[in-house]
What does this fold into?
Amino acid sequence: MALIRIPSLHVSHSLLLLVVAASCSGIKMPHVPRSTESDWPMFGRTPHRTNATDELVAPPLTIAWEGDLSSSMGYGSPVVVDTFVFVTNMRGELFVFNALTGKRYGWISLGDAFHGSPVIDGAVVYAASADARESLVAYDLFEAKTLWKRDYGDIEVTPLFFDNKLYFGTTAGIFYCVEKYKGEKEWSYRLPENRRWKGIRSSAALFDGTVIFGAEDGNVYALDAKNGRERWTYDTGAPIFASPTVYNGTVFIGNFAGTFVALDAQSGTPRWRFPTGASIYAAASFAGNLVLIGNTAGKLFALSTTEGSIRWSIEFNSVINSSAVVSGPVAYVGTLKKELIAVKVQDGTIVWRQTLNGRVKTTPAVARGRLFVATDDRMVLALEPMQHTEQR
Amino acid sequence: MPCNSPIFSLSSLQSHTPSPTIVSKVVPPSIVDLMGSAMSVLQRGVLPLLFVLAAVEAHAQFFSFGRNKVQYTDFEWHVLKTEHFDIYYYPEMQALAERGAYFAEEAYKDLEGKFNHTLNTRVPLIFYSSHLHFQQTNTTGGFIPEGVGGFFEFLKGRVVIPSDGSTAQFRHVIRHELVHVFMHSKIARVMSDHRKVQDRMPPLWFTEGLAEYWSTEWDTQADMVMRDATLNDIVVGLNDIDRIYGSYLMYKEGQSALQYIAQTYGEEKILLLMENFWKESSFSNVMKLTIGKNYQEFDEEWLYALKKRYYPLYAKEDAPSRAARPLVIDGFNSKPVVFESDTVRDVYFIGNRTGYSGIYRKGLKPRQQPDGSEASAEAYARAAAENVIEGEKTDEFEAFHLLRGRIDITKDGRLAFVTKSGEHDALHIYDVVNHSLLESFHFKSLVSIGSASWAPDGKRIVFSSIDKSGNNDLYILDTHTRALTKLTNDYYDDRDPAWSPDGTRIAFVSDRTASGLKGKYNLFLYTIETSAIDYLTYGEDNYASPAWSKDGTRLAFTCDRGGAQNVWMMDMTVPHGTPTRTMRKVTHFVTAAFDPAWTSDGDIVFTAFEKFSFQLRVIENATLIADTSRSVVTLDLYDREKPWEAQSIAGTMEIKRFRYEGDYSLDIAQSAISTDPVFGTSGGAAIALSDLLGNDQYYFLLYNTAQSQDELLSSFNIAVSRLSLKHRTSYAYGIYRFSGRRYDLTDRDEFFFERVFGGYFALSYPITKFQRIEASVSLSNSNKDADVRVGDRKALFLSNSLTFVHDNSLWGPSGPLDGSRFSITVAYTTDIQYSNANYYSIIVDYRDYLRLSQRSAYAMRYWLWYNGGREARRFVMGGSWDLRGWPRWSIRGEKLWLTSHELRFPFLDALALQFPFGGIVFSSLRGALYFDAGSAWDKQYTETLGSIGGGIRMNFGGVLVLRYDIGKRIERNFTRLQDGLFHQFFFGWDF
It folds into this structure.
């Protein structure tokens, strides 16, 4: 039974609850997801959050299928493992679709609001929620049961999954390492001298046993993944909402003031800084020796990863809120003007642009020959190359 | 029973057809009485009728009065389409509209980054080139006070903004309103993203505070308000912010609080307050989640920070009350000018002490008080000033511009001042010696007029004025020849001219500098002979109100250098062309000084801002103070940048222009079901739609009152009405078909079944803001079954009415306190087919309000209602709104008279109840002592009835007045008082 969409009706809470309760929740998957090369298995695709794949989904694209999410997706991205697309929404629900056909395997309510992406570990999904009493949940998709729930405060990031542990920060400014079996805390790190209620809204990236994340206090923190000891910190000068990315031993991260910095991943020593001129909310993406970063002024910059010099830039005349995703020689970027745009990584030439029905504020994912993107009209779309459609 | 007689407006609850009587843009006191009507109508099962009546009908007791929102100007609307906006403008202001379009797109670009959000729909921006044009807008029903700089109306998503001549201010208001648009959309998006009901918005302090915070810098005016509030302990925390709800102080406190949050906790917290809005229903809790502090905890920190910031100012600066002699303290006082002759030394000024603004006079006492004491000066300052010219009661002096235009006076006592007068502002000359208005100048090409200043010859006046293009320029009027000469002609905002005593130069204020677009104003000198404009000051400070000393050697003015706006002085004997000028600080006030005016002995009278009031005070020996001042600034007038240049949307993006043809959208669509023990269940729907400018409104009504299946088809009620407000004469017309069982209140509580169909046409012509003529004609076919009085009856009624209405009343918290209201209606209704009915009506209603003090009044009401002829309709009376103490609508007759006398006075200003879980404050409790007398009769006068008693009224949120009366009826033809007491509790404004 389809969940009824109520676009913008003013209905009472009770009526809404009734409608939701009347819908059938639950997920029935045909088999346990098995990882493949073509997956987009996590937010940023790798623990380095590089937002890049060699798999080419060549523009122009056309919509292969659309899935109704009932609420908007947060700032993460769809996750694709095997033939399954996992999407969480800001109403605390997890949806699973068939990546190829769009068939919905079901949905389940796991929390209050998922701002990030789910973490998939075989048949188990881990999801972090904002504004819930038990903000971290482990759910067995195949057994259809909740394994555990824990209260770690409001979480508005995607947890980093590494070595059977989950790493994440909270809006209260505490960074946690949690083991995956029972959700018990391994260690925690509190932002130092946090008198101004600075939180962590930057999803962590991994580099050589070090978890790296930004914080609202403007600092980039690098902690030993084993014990949470501080390895280095770097003050960017403005709050950080974006996730760091790690590429070739360098950490890249942008801040609220629009400054994009490259830091040595081992020491935190700055390699270069680049002022983009407007706030950066999303992580960078990589193609060869180029790093792509967008800002709220609608500019997408391609910078040299080694020097930070501009190779090209484009202005899209609308806010860029999500990461560009690199698919071979092409990068896709979404804007709040509801556009999905494909540019040549080499020179920034726009090769395709399509207006969608909703704003694009989530990072797309590329897998299985398709591009998956959520829009704020509560839909997730799978787009495939037009050529592919014609051949089929 | 006729169905559409003109007396519908007097007892509309009994009518079954839309009344044709009132179609003017009458601004009602509130919607309370409409709600009262709604409830009454609901009881009779004709709820849907309300929607039609709401548009064209006004309730008898209140809505037949009201001032007029006059559509003086026939605007020729055009549309300019940019990337994100549809801009509505008229051709005369095209250049201004294109500048506004540029600012709107500029703001959009910035705000989408700040909000991290984009708008899904295009934004309609309706521009007016002056505030006087803005006051005519039909996008909102109410009057727009002079202090309103623009608004965002979320039903249609419209933004309506006037220009006041200042491009910087125009830009600021556009940004301010667009912040509202973005916030509205952002909050809706946040709630929708989380699938939450969009049933709330952030509190007003946040929405308005953010609109200010993200649209302008923290300027002198904002600082002045917060300094004054903090130093005088007027400032309230967010926990108690409702105490100053909607006030300018609340706007500035909101801006200050958000600035504090941004500076202390981080700018990103502003955005997070919106992003976290879905998490909690209480904004205090949202604050707690976002910055770790709720209202109470935040207040402790923020209020302390304000004190820490402002208290040290007292070390070097003073409150005006500590450093300047008071002249006028109570009420609002501004724009003083000094008149001195052999016999008198008077200060004339614009003031508002009663609710009506006007020109006041106060004698300028000698420097030394008789006993030399401060108490004596204070007592003199608190003594009443004489009201020389009373405004807001006549069309000629419709409104004074309290903060905009300075006044000036000649040596022989001819006072030049400006008021709104009909469509435009008018410049008036008033002889203060002989107390007579000498002349009024109206200029067709000029819309609003600012400050005026006499030439020393006493013939010419220089003034600033905004024309239809929206530009504010300087003009000279020769009062003898009536010739008008334009001195400046550009988009720079030129204001506050002051003619030098030797007649050769005019000092004025303008934004024609490099920083003008940032809202900075400097002083300039216009030389009459050469038309050359020279800088008097140059810099990033704000200058205003130049005033020449009587001998012309010095110029006093205000400047905000150093933080607060104070009086400064400049030596004007310095040779022309000097590359530098020196100015000296005269006052060192912590709040602000405005409008300096010289006396002949070197004192300066000025407006002081303190304790959120505007007072007149005197600086003695101002020249001596200036000469010895240690605050001396030398200005370099030669090393300066070019003045700012206007930017326009043209050339920056693809735009389209076309004539506005009407853009209609739904205002309301509502269905209703009502159940009545007598009439059963009725159901229906009403739809209202209007065009984007609100000029054309359509109302559709459909409902059914069938009580059984076979009545279904015959019980459909349909009405279609159109109301046009585009022109000065507004009109309405419509057709209707009503059918169903009726309860005839005016007769003997009988029931009957009636089918009626017909049409009507009505128009209203506002003569002035205070007077109008209404006329109507209607034709209706009525078929009535089982009328006890006349049996089955068919009729084809033709009704005509003509009404004159006057209203210049001034309202207090529970009803009028000053002015008067009068209406007279003559009407004739005849059955042109069957001659079953044929009668005439004369209705007279007069109310006068005698002001006894600031907040008390003696109110009088006189009614004479007369219907005569065959099947003449009966009136009803009795109840809280007319003859108190008598059962509601229990007194009935074809003729009626009533008189009411009521003493209105303040009872309690506030009643606070504090519970363990929170508190509530009831404010504005008013008391009344009253006496009513009246009667209603058909053929023969029966008896006179009355009542006497007292009561209290409580204004509830500004929209509802609850009334409790206690008293005794006067019975048996005024021969005895009722045993015991009657009690009545009801709602509605006092008459």
Observations:
- Chain A has a mean pLDDT of 92.
- Chain A has two helices and 34 strands.
- The interface with chain B takes residues 8, 10-13, 16, 70-72, 90-91, 113, 130-131, 154, 171, 196-198, 216, 239, 241, 256, 278-279, 281, 296-297, 318-319, 321, 336-337, 359, 376 of chain A (CB under 8 Å).
- Helices of chain A lie at 13-22, 386-391.
